[in-house]
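Reading a protein record of the kind used here takes only a little practice. Each token is a code from a learned vocabulary of local backbone shapes. With that in mind, consider the following protein and its fold in token form:
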Amino acid sequence: MEQIYNKLVRDKIPNIIKENGEIPVVRVLDEIEYKIELERKLHEEYQEVIESSGDDRVEELADMLEVIKALAKLENKDLNDVIAVANKKAKKRGAFDDKIYLVKVIESE
């Protein structure tokens, strides 16, 4: 029996599959495919974050962070660069600490 995945996986997954006595069938993506698959993986991890809670949510957030790190690397940046930009934006525009929900904006006359 075989199970089809057709998705980007972490680097050590093929070895873990082998250790379980199974045979992984893999290929290495080119740069364009890699970017597309990272974006798909980000969406997948987002869904898993939304559907989880507690310690499971922290695990899923960690997975999402790993994808973010890989996407940043494609831009010749690292997680510290992403965090620096996030901090700069938080300083300029605020964070989400105050739980503000914008209902509407009324144009001035």
Q: What stands out?
A: The mean pLDDT is 97. Residues 54-74 form the longest helix (21 residues).
